[in-house]
Amino acid sequence: MLDRITVHGARQHNLKNIDVQIPRNTLTVITGLSGSGKSSLAFDTIYAEGQRRYVETLSPYARQFLDQMERPEVDSIDGEISRQSSEQILEQVLTMGAEQRIMILAPIVRGRKGEYKKELEKLGRQGFVRARIDGVLRALEEEITLDKRKNHTIEVVVDRLLIKPGIEKRLQASIDTATKLADGLVQVAVVGGAEKLFSQKLACPDCGASVPQLEPRSFSFNSPFGACETCAGLGSRWSFDPVKVVVDPSRPLLDGGLGPGGGSSYMAHALKALADKAKISLNKPFRELPQKSQTALLAEAVEPRRARAWRDYRRAHGNVDSSRAGGGEGVEAQRTRNADRRARGGGDS
Hints:
Elements: E1 4-10, E2 18-23, H1 38-56, H2 60-63, E3 74-78, H3 86-94, E4 101-113, H4 117-125, E5 130-133, E6 136-139, E7 151-162, H5 168-181, E8 185-190, E9 195-199, H6 242-245, H7 253-257, H8 265-278, H9 291-300, H10 304-317, H11 329-343
Antiparallel strand pairs: 1-2, 1-3, 4-7, 4-8, 5-6, 5-7, 8-9
Helix pairs in contact: 3-5, 8-11, 9-10, 9-11
């Protein structure tokens, strides 16, 4: 795993052939006298080389609009994303495990709008049989109609094989075919298991993790290709305070135990449906219910992130008593939906 950026022999401007190691994922401050080379190291060497390498990964069409960037006076800078050969990709695929059945996919379209009728027909003429379109395997011989107003992902199935001794040549050929089709990208999917994207253009030299071609959308929170996977680009996450959901755990949920919004017909219907299914008595005070029943009411039907939040709360505070309470399935699900609608400009249901 990369833990530092290492500069060897930096001679840009007034730097005197210096070597330096800068730890990653930390705030590093470069200090020194005026004219000692602080800016030359930070901006004219490290930043300039990173920018130059980024520009190299762009398409020839995009590079024609950019000025030619010269390499700074430095022997080498390690610890940055670099190119990855097909042989290196092959070695990593072989480590995915013997006897694993895998698919070699060429992601020719990633989240783009269009019908791609001509492209799919061309792939069929080239001898390819299947493609995974928006996550679904489709035969290229069938009639495929895509909505041109929606984003689509098209991954051509180049090969399906079993990782075993003697498979290297066939696997290498399949990887080469995929990278030619998808401009340096290849997706390897374990049947019924995990998937991994490899790139000949950008890859970590230590762990081998690849990233796709960098584009403006890679840095946009409005695009699923650039947005944070945790908050989906919103910058915040909806959660709930268990104490505000169950304001009086000494009473049954539908008899004064719930806080604001607890009297709605939808809330009562949702809680009763869950209670009937899980055989939970809603006539008992909430704090007298078994922990499993409390969790079922307050978390199990909530989306996984909120379920985890409730479990973390339970681990931190123990069982619910008269001063603490948790939140519930129908309870929190309804409130969360209303909050999401308000965030998007809608109203309560």
